[in-house]
């Protein structure tokens, strides 16, 4: 897409500093990376691995003891959904109307529902989850098909435009593109 980024994204954020802390995998950090990449801003992508146990003791940076954390200039942002929305507002991809924003928020909230069946398959924690691998995989596949069906039905209901919200690229497109790929490819 050939865009006048300053016009599309509002003010120019090329000189802003963005630092993302997240694990090496995709997860919630992938959406933040996707938004920042789409906006064309440079950002530092700090991939956290073994040092996480020590890092999360820093309660100034990791207020809730969780990631992702995004630092925008000097501002520390926590909790993934508010970060998604913050960036979407910053880069003018949060929808044109309150109805658009509802559609985006609804999609973002569905992520936690999908994770309920994703986590037992890919990150089993309890003995029950570890001992019922096949059952968990089947439940996950069934739930994934259900959610993809919901997304498709909603897209059709909204008018089947070029993007999820008709002719307007938004956070919904970032969310769906990244998460459908992550969930479908089990990464």
Q: What's the arrangement of secondary structure elements?
A:
Blueprint: H1 5-9, E1 18-23, H2 27-39, E2 44-48, H3 52-55, E3 69-72, E4 75-78, H4 80-90, H5 98-122, H6 127-131, H7 133-157, H8 171-184
Parallel strand pairs: 1-2
Antiparallel strand pairs: 1-3, 3-4
Which stretches of 5+ consecutive residues score pLDDT under 50?
Answer: 1-9
Helix content: 40-55%
First-residue to last-residue Cα separation = 27 Å
H/E element string?
HEHEHEEHHHHH
Instruction: Give a quick account of the main beta sheet: strands, pairing sense, barrel closure.
Output: 4 strands, mixed
Main structural class: alpha+beta
Q: Numbering strands along the chain, what is their spatial order in the largest sheet?
A: 2-1-3-4
Task: Tell me the Rg in angstroms.
Answer: 18 Å
Strand content: 5-15%
Separate helix tally: 8
- Indicate the mean pLDDT: 90
Q: Count all strands and give the number.
A: 4
Shape designation? flat
């Amino acid at each position: 897409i050939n865009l006048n980024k300053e016009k599309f994204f509002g003010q120019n954020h090329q000189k802003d500093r963005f630092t993302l802390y997240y694990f090496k995998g995709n997860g919630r950090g992938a959406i933040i990376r996707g938004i920042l990449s789409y906006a064309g801003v440079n950002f530092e992508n700090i991939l956290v691995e073994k040092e996480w146990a020590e890092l999360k003791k820093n309660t100034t940076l990791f207020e809730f003891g969780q990631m992702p954390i995004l630092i925008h200039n000097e501002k520390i942002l926590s909790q993934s959904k508010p970060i998604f929305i913050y960036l979407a507002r910053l880069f003018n991809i949060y929808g044109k109307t309150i109805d658009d924003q509802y559609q985006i928020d609804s999609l973002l909230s569905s992520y936690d529902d999908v994770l309920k069946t994703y986590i037992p398959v890919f990150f089993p924690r309890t003995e029950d989850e570890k001992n019922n691998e096949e059952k968990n995989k089947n439940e996950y596949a069934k739930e994934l098909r259900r959610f993809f069906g919901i997304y498709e039905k909603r897209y059709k209901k909204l008018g089947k435009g070029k993007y999820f919200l008709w002719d307007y690229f938004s956070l919904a497109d970032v969310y769906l593109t990244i998460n459908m790929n992550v969930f479908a490819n089990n990464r």
